[in-house]
Amino acid sequence: MNRENMHTKIERVLENIERVMIGKRDVAELSLVALLAEGHVLLEDVPGVGKTMMVRALAKSVGAQFKRIQFTPDLLPSDVTGVSIYNPKEMEFQFRPGPIMGNIILADEINRTSPKTQSALLEGMEESSVTIDGVTHRLEKPFFVMATQNPIEYEGTYPLPEAQLDRFLLKMKMGYPEVAEEMEVLNRAQRIPPIEALEPAIDLVELRELQQEIKEVHVDDTIKRYIVDIANRTRTHSSVYLGASPRGSIALMKAAQAYAFMYGRDYVIPDDIQILAPAVFVHRIILKSEAKFEGITAEEVVERVIARVPVPVQRLVK
Q1: Distance from CA of residue 111 to its chain's centroid?
Q2: What is the structure's pLDDT at 126?
Q3: In b/e form, how buried is each residue of 107-116, taking b as 16+ CB within 10 angstroms?
Q4: Distance of CA 300 to the CA centre of its chain
Q5: What is the dihedral of CA 232, 230, 264, 22, to 10 degrees?
Q6: Other C-beta atoms within 10 Å of 259: how many?
Q7: Cα–Cα 20 to 30 A to 179, which of 124, 150, 212, 290?
Q8: Is the pLDDT of residue 172 over 50?
Q9: Domains along the chain?
């Protein structure tokens, strides 16, 4: 698959998602960025705005095996990863895989279950494997988790542990649709749901090719320094208790490579970093108590940091 065909395929995936998700091109792009960069996404918003539909549309568009995990307060870690069950006929334990054994995993309402069960996703998200009863099971690639959560001010929710938050490449919100967009949603709901008519725009072989190709996108040293400078500023900001980790810097670089590739470039520019930094860094920042009391948000901190870090201006192409 040549480069021109690759970009055509990417555009077809986005168009596919837009048939289902009206007016959410930016969310579709960021979701695809995470998938191409081999990362994971945390979607946070109120119920009913289309978080689940976004994941299903993405899975159908790339011809991936889709699995859904509905997180509830009584869900156990083994309900996620799988369990070994004794077979008396064979006189041995046999492994029954859990729903984590798929390509695209929807972790629905992840903050409605206990931290112990939330952590069952950690190894899979970081290592692309799960260990059950001392046996490590590799997960088939591509492996992509898109978790949804309702805002923590809703009753019956558990904040995600910082260690798990750091493993999400991006965090974003869907937001309510505009009036005209919601009218179109109603019109489509009267007919056959668009999700049922979606056909894959690419297959898993092509997706893996894209993921490998993106790793070759050039990141100049000035861009790497720009990323590090932004991350460092989040660590020293007066309102921040804990800033973005080095894993966050790596995540921003990988996301920028995927974003540049989506727009037909084989090199990253500062604009890519500025566009993606909020989605990559916001969930990796812990604010001081006094900052929260004053109403300062992590989004505001990241925006201020980006505005203050000097932008590299030298020629960036190879």
Answers
A1: 16
A2: 82
A3: bbbbbbbeee
A4: 21
A5: 110
A6: 25
A7: 150
A8: yes
A9: 3-210 (3.40.50.300), 216-308 (1.10.8.80)
Amino acid at 208: R
Q: Residue 318 has what pLDDT?
A: 47
Q: Tell me how far the alpha carbon of residue 78 is from its chain's centroid.
A: 23
Q: At 154, is the pLDDT very low, low, confident or very high (cuts 50, 70, 90)? A: low
Q: Which residue has the tokens 């994971």?
A: 40
**What single-letter amino acid sits at 83?**
V
> Element (H or E) spanning 108, and its range?
strand 104-108
Which stretches does DSSP call E strand in 214-296? 240-242, 286-287
Tell me the H-state helices in 122-203. Answer: 122-127, 162-165, 179-189, 194-197
Which one is predicted more confidently, 62 or 126?
Answer: 62
HSE value, Cβ hemisphere, 13 Å, CA-based, for 188: 16
Cβ atoms of residues 55 and 61 within 8 Å = no
- Nearest of 196, 214, 172, 205 to residue 49 by alpha carbon: 172
Q: Are strands 104-108 and 66-70 parallel, antiparallel or unpaired?
A: parallel
Q: Is the pTM of this model over 0.85?
A: yes
Maximal C-alpha separation, the chain: 70
Reduce the DSSP state of residue 43 to 3 states and report it.
strand
Classify burial at 175, counting beta carbons within 10 Å of its beta carbon; exposed 0-12, middle 13-18, buried 19 or more. middle
